[in-house]
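FORM 7B: Structural annotation worksheet

SECTION A. Query
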Amino acid sequence: PLTGSTAEKHDAFIHIQSSNHSELRVIERFTGSQLIQGEPDASSFPSGGMRSTFEARGYTAWDPTSPLFIFEGEGSRTLCIPTVFFGYHGEALDHKTPLLRSNSAVNEKACEFLKLLGDVDVKTVTSTLGAEQEYFLIDRRFAALRPDIIMTGRTLLGAPPPRGQQLEDHYFGSIPTRVQNFMEESEKELYRLGIPVKTRHNEVAPSQFEIAPIFENASISADHNTLTMETLKRIANKQGLFCLLHEKPFAGLNGSGKHCNWSMSNDKGENLLEPGKTPHQNLRFLAVLAVILRAVNDHADMLRVGIASPGNDHRLGANEAPPAIISVFLGSLLSDIVHNIETGKKMGESVETKMINLGVSTIPDISRDYTDRNRTSPFAFTGNKFEFRAVGSSANISQPVSILNAAVADSFAKSTKQLSAMLAKTSKRDEAVMDFVKEVFVETKRIQFEGDNYSQEWRDEAKKRGLPILSNTAEAMQVYKSPAATQFLVEQKVLTEAELVSRFHISLERFIKTLQIEIATLDEITTTYVIPAIEKQLAISQAILKDATTSGLKAQYKTRVTDLEEVLGSILSTLGEVHTVVEKTNAIHDEFEKTQRIQSEIVPLRDTLRKACDKAETLVSDELWPLPKYREMLFTHQIS
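SECTION B. Predicted structure
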């Protein structure tokens, strides 16, 4: 559903039969009608105004493209049926339906385009996906003592420890025994559910890890990713751990993403983004590449909307994740090829001759990939796929991938029209295709960037190029109000106009409620945890100052008392401002206006209050500080 997570309704197979003698018999029965359609009501799920109270009935329908699976609990087995969820009048009330529609759009539009290239026997084209899932693990005992983690999935305050990730020793390091046990049990459970996980490793930040599957059909991959997140949380809890999927659980450390490795394949199993060994395969690769560049160029604003969330706002643009400016990285080799086509130059060295000589006789020469890596790019070509790096770790990937698929389908449709006109003027198909590729490469030059996306120079350059710069979710959601930006979703039959409006309102509501929960939780922690701890420490320090007999000690404790009084005064003052602004904001009825007010006024106050609380943590003794610290949460797993 549109909550962003999974949902379940469990029905027993029990069926009661009565005989002619009024005897009741209980049997277990499962019918085809139960498989195909269900009626869970589910009127409390977000609908964005698509369902009135008097017509709140909702239906589920079996998605036969996604495999059924059996979940084995402690004392029972449950047959799980992947379904779509829709309203009484057929409105999509879920993330899965638009994704399935977008797959159909890609299939239809891509086949039309490929036939123009000469692939006359192509029957289907499928979008494929492999989602790398990053997450944090901490001891469950510490999570239980942190109201912010329980309520929001992240720490709302916490001073940075002396050692974080600056030594870069955790990344790809030896996996702690306790964590490896968790990983192994999680993987066994995922295999039993049919999820083909392949990779596990330490990530950059302490206590941060990654799991990645093998490529699958995009809709199945989306199902499997939601199941993976649920499984990680369940197994962690079973083993006395707590799995954090929030994009930024700990300030000052790298956040977590969900790198979506996206490509397309035809019914012959050929990857359309795989440069081939024949002239036709390479021509097709270049043409499909041009189509994708156009998709990103034309719909960068909606692609930004697809990754927008309050959690991802903490991560995007920091030195750990791509900025909120959508651009494409092609790599040095492919960029040279694109440049040569644009300028009409001959092709340089072939891909096959690109080798890396390490200068070590015992190590063979290594084949160089078709492209190098750029970790700062939000949408990077990585050999035979694009890595959509900007997706947040807690996201349901159906939404960003639906938008990406729709953008690509729209680009295929435009490209088919353009190439058809070119082919009508010549009998030389290959030349027409190359002319098309050249035109699109030139047209999409503004979206291509090979440098450091973190740099201020790129931000300035992106502004000059006219790229959409939407710094946060509140700004990104304004795109929903632009028919020009959203119309392609309607044209490709991925979302109806009513469904688009509903997504807009649901996004506003989710943003507002998320920030309201965060600020209320921070208010509670500050009032009931932080302030009393400062007061205790202040009383102790004042008593020592009063009893001090030497001028040196008096001076030291006078400074200490002053520091404590200043931070306490700052906290109390900021809390007062928070209460005033929150009260005024809650009185606003227009959701869009409320979102803008939260972003412009409450978010800065939240950050100011956190800064003061983090300062207090460094002044209060460990004995008096009531919350588990970063040091304890991030490093305990290594010694437990």
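SECTION C. Observations
The longest helix spans residues 497-547. Residues 257 and 393 are 4 Å apart (CA to CA).

SECTION D. Sign-off
Analyst initials: ____
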